[in-house]
């Protein structure tokens, strides 16, 4: 951030800590994703709700462009809450195996909602079928296929540890198991390319690892499309309607839509653009959200201590998962303390100062996780505060 935003002073009178969303930047990111997909595809974009978690902003995305169709949810209870709030067309991207979770999905399904959920094993498939017994029409299941890079016979695993469906035989076997069930029908697959969509290859925090990350991404750029095509062709050959063939994410939105065997791609983090998405060489989004903390004390010259700030991102612990100070320019966290739950010290750059009571701006490492800590987001547009929007938490929703 090269200069103080015009709305910064207005935050002094607001309740802090707070998340601030620049709607102009947000809208530009929404347009950028739509344009990237059209240039590469085009395919519909299913929005990953976990990266936003603010219903008003989700509706804003959907209204911006017809390319946005449907929602990728992270919780069965979230799916039901959004459906009851007027949303529809869901793909639950994480297995639902608890009775309460499956009951939430059934409520949407029985109520006429369009919903599908991933499965990746016989146990999960049977749990889903048991919970759906007696439905008027079969509940749709999507096979979650692992696309991790596993060279040396699986001795090395580059990707995320999600699904055990790794081979075509695995997919064929689970599909066959589903055909004997009346309450569930397989309508496609999801192939998330985590080592492309979520692996940074230009990180200032891990310069040595960037070389390895680039090698993994280069190999995956070749292997992932081939494997997704093979799964699509297999399922079609087995009689699957392939209503859903989902792939991609914000970090691969520039090339995943080029795969004609996919029926849709997913994006989420791109819209708010947390600072981890500064560290990709192939995509670039505009920072659209900040966390504002109030300077509450000053222990020494050149330092201020802010109230709040303990908002690390999920994932492997490291400095890249902490809040990134962006204003005043040149400010940085104190290495020995990092971000604290009730206070966060910040070292100021020479020649800069912050008055007690003034806001200090940070960026979160991940897009949606801050919503779990705040009841609403402050909204700015045309360089001024224009309102606020409740998060899931502000709506009284808690999905674990």
What does this structure look like?
This protein has helices at residues 23-40, 55-64, 76-84, 99-110, 122-131, 168-179, 194-197, 207-237, 269-272, and strands at 18-22, 45-48, 68-73, 90-92, 115-119, 139-144, 184-191, 244-247, 264-267, 289-297, 303-307, 324-327, 332-333, 343-347, 359-363, 376-381, 384-390. With 400 residues, it is an alpha/beta fold. It has two domains: 23-272, Alpha-Beta Barrel (TIM Barrel); 286-391, Lyase, Ornithine Decarboxylase, Chain A, domain 1 (Beta Barrel), CATH 2.40.37.20. The strands form two sheets. Strands 1, 10, 11, 12, 13, 14, 15, 16 and 17 form a nine-stranded mixed beta sheet that branches. It has an eight-stranded parallel beta barrel with strand order 2-3-4-5-6-7-8-9, surrounded by seven helices.
CATH superfamily of the largest domain: Alanine racemase
How many structurally independent domains?
A: 2
Large-scale geometry = globular
Based on DSSP secondary structure assignment, what is the total number of beta strands?
A: 17
Radius of gyration: 22 Å
Largest sheet: 9 strands, mixed
Q: Count of helical segments?
A: 9
The helicity comes to 25-40%
Topology pattern, helix = H, strand = E: EHEHEHEHEHEHEHHEEHEEEEEEEE
Oligomerization status of the protein chains: single chain
